[in-house]
Amino acid sequence: MDSVGVAAATPEARPGPAWQSKCPWGAPSTTSISCSLADVMSEQLAKELQLEEENAAFPEVVAAAEGPFITGENIDTSSDLMLAQMLQMEFDREYDAQLRREEKKINGDSKVSISFENYRKVHPYDSDSSEDEVDWQDTRHDPYRADKPTTTPRRGFIGKGKDITTKHDEVVCGRKNTARMENFAPEFQVGDGIGMDLKLSNQVFNALKQHAYSEERRSARLHEKKEHSTAEKAVDPKTRLLLYKMVNSGMLETITGCISTGKESVVFHAYGGSSATEDKVIPPECAIKVFKTTLNEFKNRDKYIKDDYRFKDRFSKLNPRKIIRMWAEKEMHNLTRMQNAGIPCPQVVILKKHVLVMSFIGQDQVPAPKLKDVTLSSEDMKKAYYQILNMMQQLYRECNLVHADLSEYNMLWHDGKVWLIDVSQSVEPTHPHGLEFLFRDCRNVSQFFQKGGVAEALNERELFNAVSGLNITADNEVDFQAEIEALEKMNEDHVQNHGKKLSTFSSDGDPPIYDE
């Protein structure tokens, strides 16, 4: 007998007192099965015990997992990679079994079922050949596609008697319309109707078809517009080429980014470079104003430019590119006039087609705040009001211009004074709507400073007379605007009769006055 057998039999051969077997705290007498040490160290016994435990815990999973991959003798279990792959496969199969149970629980007896095939780890079709692969979606029944191709007979109906079905049948037409949705553009999302018997009426299908065509044309227009027009905070290829040439020539060192957007233009910040000519000094910081090449956001540009005698002969409503270039040229000429008169405004550096480079009002890439965004003390507000009043008089008398869009949005506060910007729409007082634009500017300025608490601020009618030098006496605003329109009409009739606009104004340096 070996050592194990002897050790097992030793306690039985040693008798003890009677109270020792009945003691509740004593060790229980257990009968142990005798086995050899070789049986205990056997791997085959360990595998059998493990399989018994797995079969008791996971009967379905282990049954599905049985095969040469787990129990084969040709697997090298000493490799850590192989063991990791085996464990991962076991986990994936358990996960798939759980998904199948969830599918069965959720679907039940419902006609519309869901599938978790996309979330499964191990797919049922594991073939090495691409020809044998089957898409799980194609295995489901599609009610819109017939199992066999059917043709509608020439007579237009199928069946006899009460079972007759015509080509206008609601069910047949509904399924055909649903199948036709596959012919829509890929961008038009029609959804996934596989597994559902959908029927679209002719009215709904025609509406969807028309909407799909309109969306396709709209996307084409948007794509073309992005290529041929300047979008917000971006430029088209032609504008990019102009900016690249400015940087390559050394005029600009670098363009940092967009600082402002509006209905007519996009403004970028740039650092100035060196100039090719000595008489032209480029400021350290520049503002690049790129006029938008689309008229969608500012369609009434021609109202400000077609009646301006400086551009009247060159105006072409049919060519938007020409209008934009004239618009940029108009701002350059207006800024030059204001700069010569000493009015605080950006300094013009260069104009290239619809790209205008000016001096930057601000410091260290931070633009000067607009007058509507800055909080001023009562003294600074009063100082700003008198400065704007003086600038409006200078603009009208010395520059012979009307801003035509003057408000707190187009005035900057920098270095303790007001700067005027955005003068591309500015016109001369002899413009057919020049006095109307001036009255609108006076209303905006007067309302802003009256709300700001400036007691000395004049109302719009008093400010109009102070700026223009005209003495229009009217008790209310309606009569005041009627007299302005009458003066503009008088000037327009004189232009048509004599071909000149300056005959109704005095020729000296005094402010223009209409003859009543």
Features:
elongated; protein serine/threonine kinase activity; disordered N terminus; 516 residues; 16 helices; two-stranded antiparallel sheet; metal ion binding; kinase; Phosphorylase Kinase, domain 1; RIO_kinase_CS; single chain; Transferase(Phosphotransferase), domain 1; Serine/threonine-protein kinase RIO3
State the shape: elongated
Sequence stretches where pLDDT stays below 50 over 5 or more residues: 1-13, 61-72, 125-140, 500-516
Tell me the strand order in the biggest sheet: 3-4-5-7-6
Number of strands: 11
**CA gyration radius, whole angstroms:** 45 Å
The CATH C-level name of the domain at 234-367 is: Alpha Beta
How much is the average pLDDT?
76
What structural class results from the helix and strand content?
alpha+beta
Report the end-to-end length measured between terminal Cα atoms: 143 Å
Percentage of residues in helical conformation: 40-55%
Number of helices: 16
Which CATH-level-2 architecture of the domain at 234-367?
2-Layer Sandwich
Please describe the biggest sheet, giving its number of strands, its sense, and whether it closes into a barrel. Answer: 5 strands, antiparallel
Strand-and-helix sequence, N→C?
HHHHHHHEEHHHEEEHHEEEEHEEHHH
Q: Give the amount of beta strand, in percent.
A: 5-15%
